[in-house]
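This section describes the prediction task in plain terms. A model, or a person checking by hand, is given the sequence of a single protein chain and must write out its three-dimensional structure as a string of tokens. No templates, partner chains or ligands are provided. The sample shown here is typical of the held-out split.
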Amino acid sequence: MPYAAITYRVRPGHEDEIAEIFAAFQRVDTPEFGAEGGTPSGRLLGTGVFVKDDVMVRVIHYEGDFAAVGRHMAGQQGVHQLEERLAPFLAERRDTSTAEGFQEYFRNALMRSVSQLTIDTHPTRT
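The expected answer:
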């Protein structure tokens, strides 16, 4: 079950405001998501958000097709509310008001994964 990390450049000194925004986040309506045709293609297992100085990272634990994660999140009202509240604290403006704009940012902000280790891949696991 992979992880993905999305980066945000934020204005430094606003960690508390950003934490408040995420504390009030309206979770997705369902953790299950589908492919473009509606066929089930995965589910969200968890997320975490980290912020320090001018960098915020959202870590997403999921199973299935990552492109479908972006499509699923783009259709969530709570995500758009969060994006609106977060906008004043972003160092770089971006348009996430449409599903297409959100998906483009989601793709472009994806960090390169260099290592993902789990108990399932541990060499002592039998």
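For orientation: The mean pLDDT is 88.
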